[in-house]
Structure formats: structure tokens, C-alpha cells
Amino acid sequence: MSETTGRRGPKLIEEGLERLPPAPASAAEAPPVDDAPPPTPPLRAGRRGLSLAGLFWAGLGGLLTFALGLWAVEVVEALLARNLWLGRVALGLAILAGAAALLVALREIAGLSRLGRIDALRLRAAAAREGRDRAAAAAALDGLSAFLSGRPELAAARAEAKARAADLMDADALLDLGERRLLAPLDAAAEQAVKRGAREAATATALIPLPALDVLLAFAINLRMIRRVAEIYGGRSGWAGSLRLMRAVAAHLAATGLIALGDDLLGPTLGGGALAKLSRRFGEGAANGAMTARIGIAAMEVCRPLPFVARAAPRVPALMAGALQGFLRRGEGEDR
Q1: What DSSP character marks residue 175?
Q2: What is the model's pLDDT at position 257?
Q3: How far apart are CA 197 and CA 222, in angstroms?
Q4: How far apart are CA 255 and CA 236, in angstroms?
Q5: How far apart are CA 220 and CA 236, in angstroms?
Q6: What separation in angstroms does the CA of 103 have from each of 48, 107, 136, 184, 198?
Q7: pLDDT by residue (tens digit) across 68-84?
Q8: Is 292 helix (H, G, I), strand (E, B) or coil?
């Protein structure tokens, strides 16, 4: 048994060597060896809602809600024990307050949902334009038309865009059609809101001597302007939505870089050395107005359902030229 195994061993080895593929004649003819590691699947982005700060505020808000509810129950029970009618009135007021709080929460959720739809539309349009996908561009245009279906002033524009979309075979042309026909009126209204905010910020800075009050008014003006821009584009935001918009605008400003506020920015707007002819307060007001205009442009880019491609984004000097006309005339009259 051992001799048979010993004799078959060399034969099996020889047969195995004969079955191997022939070796290349030289190293140049050898097939390349892939030393790279196998590709790893892409990682999914983590959910922002699971952050420690979010858990902390969620837990604190829930605890305060329970404490407030327990306090209301104790007050109602005490009033019922003391006087039946007072207890009933307190119970009715508690139910009214609870219903109002529920409606406010539902409105906030609806506002956040609309802001999320705007973000989704913008991402879909950008992906369709980058991939030159006509089907995706048509879906993005249909989604934009459906999102703006509650705007009666855009009914004719939506009908025209739907009629012309069938003749366009290019993804860029479809998205350009949506920008020019559906978003052009909204862009004009948003620019007017930004001009108004810049003019109010410039006027408040020039006329209010208290720096602390000046800062508070500037913050309130910018917040109201951002909310107005969001409403123009269809994002009805409450307080939670306003905080989300402020964060998005701040992130956009940090990503694109803050503009320099000085004579190099205000020169084309005010004309040469016009800042030297004005008082110091009006110069500071013009600078704050320019900063408010820049924040307004960032708000337009964040709240717009489609990114600026077919239509150019507004520029700070152009907005300031219209916003500071009355402001400059007022300043010249006071200096005289």
C-alpha cells in the first residue's frame, strides 16, 4: 500500500504541472498583477438627528413639556377642588392652550417639510444637469411645477412650460425653461425683498446711535428678510424653519466666502469717492446694507428650488444701487 502510494505521488505531481498554464517568455509578457485592495462600498452619511446636541435638546424639551403638563394638571385639580366653575374654566383654557400648541407644532412640521422639498428639487435638478439626463430633468421640471401649483399668478407660466417641454430634447434646455418661465417672477420678487432689507439695515445703522440696538435691529431685519425670501419661493417657515434657514445661509456664506465690505465693493455702487462725501454714520449704514444684501443673495441661493444657471444670480452692487437711492438722497439732505 505504501509502495503504490509512493509510486503515484510523482505521477500526480507531473500531471499537475502539465495542467498549469505556460509561463510567459519574459517579464514584459506577464499579465499585470492588481495589488490594489478590493473596492469598499460607499459609506452612508450619518443622520444629523442622532447627534448628542440633538438628543440633549430633545430630552430637555420633553422633560419641560412633562413638567408643564403636570403643573397644569395640578392647577386644574386644585381649582376643581376649590370651585367647580373655576376648575372648568381652567380646564377649558388648558385644552385651548394644548390645541394651539399642537397646531403650532403641525405648522412647524409642515414648514420644515416644504423646505425639505425645496432642497430635494434643487439636488435633483443639479444631478440631472450634471448627468445630462433628460428624463431626470423632465421629472425635476414636473416636480417644480407641482410644487408651485398653489400659486395662481404662475398658472400661465406653468401651462406654457408644460407645452414647450415636449419639444425640448435636452436636459439643460428643460431646466433652463423652468428657470426662465417659472422662477423669473419669483426672482424679481425676492430681489425686491432683499433691496428692502438692505435699505432698512442701512437706514437703521445710520439713524440709531446705540450700537447694541443697532445690532439687534440688523439681526431682526435679516431674519425677516430671509423668511420673506423663503416664502416667495414657496418655503413657509415658522420659528424652527427660520433657525434652519439661518444655519443654511450661514453655511452657504462660509462655503462661498464672505465678501469684503469696503470701498472696493461700494465704489461701483456709490460712485468713486462718494463715501468720503458722506458722514461716518451713513458710510457704516451703507456697509451694513451691503452685508444685508449679501446675506439676502445667499438666502435666495438656499431657498431657490433650482440653482442659478440659466439666469445669473444677483450681485451686491446692483442690489445696492437700487436699495440706496433714497438712502443717499436723505443723507445728502441731512449733511447740507
Answers
A1: H
A2: 58
A3: 7
A4: 25
A5: 18
A6: 25, 6, 36, 34, 33
A7: 889 988 988 888 888 88
A8: helix
